[in-house]
Amino acid sequence: LFPYTTLFRSVDTRYFHDGNTHMLFYLWLIDGREFWFFPTVFTQATVHGYFWNGGVWATVCVRQEMIRAFF
Hints:
The protein has 71 residues and is mainly β. Helices cover 10% and strands 45% of the residues. It has one helix at 4-10; strands at 25-29, 34-42, 46-52, 57-63, 67-70. It has a five-stranded antiparallel sheet with strand order 4-3-2-1-5. Strand 2 (34-42) and strand 3 (46-52) form a beta hairpin.
Protein backbone atom coordinates (compact mmCIF):
# COMPACT_ATOMS: atom_id res chain seq x y z
CA LEU A 1 0.00 0.00 0.00
CA PHE A 2 1.01 3.58 -0.58
CA PRO A 3 2.00 5.80 2.33
CA TYR A 4 -0.73 8.25 3.39
CA THR A 5 1.21 11.27 2.10
CA THR A 6 1.43 9.75 -1.36
CA LEU A 7 -2.25 8.87 -1.40
CA PHE A 8 -3.69 12.28 -0.62
CA ARG A 9 -1.41 13.99 -3.12
CA SER A 10 -2.49 11.61 -5.88
CA VAL A 11 -6.27 11.92 -5.43
CA ASP A 12 -8.31 14.65 -7.10
CA THR A 13 -11.42 15.18 -4.98
CA ARG A 14 -13.24 16.74 -7.95
CA TYR A 15 -13.92 13.15 -8.99
CA PHE A 16 -15.96 12.56 -5.84
CA HIS A 17 -19.43 13.49 -7.13
CA ASP A 18 -23.03 12.33 -7.46
CA GLY A 19 -21.97 9.43 -9.68
CA ASN A 20 -20.47 7.93 -6.53
CA THR A 21 -23.67 7.52 -4.50
CA HIS A 22 -24.44 4.20 -2.85
CA MET A 23 -20.80 3.05 -2.96
CA LEU A 24 -18.52 2.48 0.01
CA PHE A 25 -15.52 4.82 0.38
CA TYR A 26 -12.81 5.54 2.90
CA LEU A 27 -12.49 9.30 3.50
CA TRP A 28 -9.59 11.34 4.87
CA LEU A 29 -10.57 14.85 5.97
CA ILE A 30 -8.27 17.87 6.19
CA ASP A 31 -8.75 17.98 9.98
CA GLY A 32 -7.17 14.52 10.33
CA ARG A 33 -10.35 12.46 10.77
CA GLU A 34 -10.78 9.36 8.62
CA PHE A 35 -13.65 6.89 8.33
CA TRP A 36 -15.67 4.57 6.11
CA PHE A 37 -18.38 6.54 4.30
CA PHE A 38 -21.47 5.59 2.28
CA PRO A 39 -22.67 8.70 0.37
CA THR A 40 -26.34 9.02 -0.51
CA VAL A 41 -26.80 12.65 -1.68
CA PHE A 42 -24.38 15.15 -3.21
CA THR A 43 -25.15 18.87 -3.26
CA GLN A 44 -22.98 21.65 -4.62
CA ALA A 45 -21.16 22.07 -1.30
CA THR A 46 -21.88 18.97 0.82
CA VAL A 47 -22.14 15.20 0.78
CA HIS A 48 -24.76 13.46 2.90
CA GLY A 49 -24.54 9.83 3.88
CA TYR A 50 -23.54 7.38 6.58
CA PHE A 51 -20.22 6.80 8.33
CA TRP A 52 -19.03 3.81 10.32
CA ASN A 53 -18.33 4.90 13.90
CA GLY A 54 -16.90 1.55 14.94
CA GLY A 55 -20.18 0.03 16.04
CA VAL A 56 -23.04 1.31 13.88
CA TRP A 57 -23.65 3.37 10.75
CA ALA A 58 -24.50 6.98 11.67
CA THR A 59 -25.71 9.85 9.47
CA VAL A 60 -23.32 12.63 8.57
CA CYS A 61 -23.05 15.65 6.31
CA VAL A 62 -19.54 16.51 5.09
CA ARG A 63 -18.55 19.74 3.36
CA GLN A 64 -16.79 18.77 0.13
CA GLU A 65 -13.94 21.21 0.81
CA MET A 66 -13.12 19.18 3.96
CA ILE A 67 -12.30 16.02 1.95
CA ARG A 68 -8.57 15.56 1.53
CA ALA A 69 -8.75 12.18 -0.16
CA PHE A 70 -11.01 9.20 -0.75
CA PHE A 71 -10.53 5.58 -1.71
